[in-house]
Model the fold of this input.
Amino acid sequence: MEKERFFGGGWKSAHAGLLPEVRAFALDEHLPHSFVGFGWEQPVHGQEAHAQQLESALSSLVSSPSSNAPDGNDSVVIRELIGRLGSICNSGNVSPSSRCHSAHASYYSTPLSSPPKLNLAGADHQRQRMLVNQVAAAPLTAPFLADQGFAERAARFSCFGAAEAGQLSRVSSRQSLAKEVAASYAMMAGSSSSPEASSASEKLTAVVAEHNARKRKAAPKGKGKAAAPSSSSAMDPPEASPKIESFIDASKLCELIPLPQEENSDSKRCKSAEAGGADKDAPVKPKTEQNSSDDGNAKPPEPPKDYIHVRARRGQATDSHSLAERVRREKISERMKLLQDLVPGCNKVTGKAVMLDEIINYVQSLQRQVEFLSMKLATLDPQLEFDTETLLSKEMHQVHVPLPQQVLFPLDMATSAFSLAQPPLKLAENPLDSMFSSLQLPPIDHVMMMHHFRHKFKSVENNLTDPKLAELVCSLPISGKTTFGMSFRPGSRRARRHHSPPELFEPSEPEAPKKIESCV
Amino acid sequence: MYRRSFKDTRSSLGSPNPNFSKPMVALRFLRALSLVRRSGLGACSPSYRARGIRRAAYACMAASAGPRRAWSRALLRKIRRRPGRGLRRPRAVIWRHRPVGGGDRLEVALRRLVPGGGCMEYCRLLEEAADYVKCLAMQVRLMQTIVDSASHV
Done:
């Protein structure tokens, strides 16, 4: 086509500084370059005709076979480009002219509507990759940065890209993305100026090349590389610097965009690898300015299930196995930290083995202490009478309301062996007196305890008549296991404990009468 | 007689799940102690009583720790199984999967120490060990206080 010749010259002149590894630029003869040149050649003055021409060029471009399509993940590339578009627009850098706004605005409407029409079912991956690369090679970003009218479109592109990748089939999504990207880039190309374009294109192509050259799972490393273009951006000529910066931000953004998709697949693999633990988000290097635009895009693709959501950190592999291992390692280290706080004297100890050793020693010492103290208690025991209230008051100065009642009754039962003849109030009072005699409480506590006991006595009085005594005894904690049983019921998922619940949790009514008889 | 103390300790004041309330443990333990003491009045030998008290202590600890903890369940089961309980009823015990990895002697030692630690994964083991250590420390402090107050009064 005549357009090719027309544009090829412009393209070559513009891309003198292209990186060699970008093989896409070997396809200079193809339309995409001319695509760009077309934009350059004809000033942007926003007509539909341009859009239509570009569309046709785009379609022919896509349909043309590609030879040296670079390897790599084209969907990643596409997403990256779209992300760049989105970020560029969101960054809000404005270099330029209002005419660009109008021009782009008119352009945008068409490509958005056109992609769905184009049916590239037959296009293979290579073509798409080629298309994307070639389009990416175009120094289109600089004008993008300037254009604010494009912001919504680019945002839509990125949203569309993210959503599409998550929902549509890969081929169709890639195709539509490719179309959109190509169309939008074509639009943008119109307002670009060559020097800025060349420098911007370098960055773009560098990032694109990185994406293509890398494998998918090494995508996080691209984040590190994204920093490289950003560092190189510092050397840019000052007049292009604002645009380059926003462009670099776009490149950073694009690194993030593949992540949701990777997360999806990785999180799905994590789910299979690890038996669905709690959700966990390892922090990603935050790119604050993209967060707002990214969050909306990142949310839809993530599966709303109980997967382990882990983000790959910078410089780490995103292999599903390594992700799961990393999650596990983090869990273990977190638990170890907990243990470190519990075990005294472990703050300065580092290393898992030494920590474990300390923990084991501590547990052993605690168990030995329990044994020793129980022996001591056994020897001390017959000499003292255990006034629970005394000891309780010595330990803490809070008397729980339910406690006194149940404290009293066991003592009653133990001493009187379930003698139901005595009125409970009297029974209650006897141990109370004995307790109070031995109490050396401060007056406040004494009063408090008295209040509690009086309250409890009243409730006891209400309940206790002879015919109701058995029922009361049933409700006692000693004879019945009601409260404990009701609270101690394990979860249904603990299937293996089914044998213990029946023993523990028999209802109080059938059991209590048996208990009474056994105790007497 | 020791069974009674265990039942007593099990019967709780609406056993709260977290074991942060020392008074709960204290109450249970004291009640159990009194029961042990009153049952048979010493049972003739202090070592016998000591064993009973030790088991009561562990039972209190496990009971107040709550059923949500694997170690508390395993501990209670171990305690209750002791008094001559053979295969009273054939239970469909789902044999707990034993995690392979006995190469690390530290891990093995920890599994032996923590009740119910033979079947858990490493992460779970560490978690249960932390909780177990916390409850154990609290129990030890409690018993120490009791002994101190008992020896002073």
User: Anything to note?
Assistant: Chain B is about 65% helix and 0% strand.
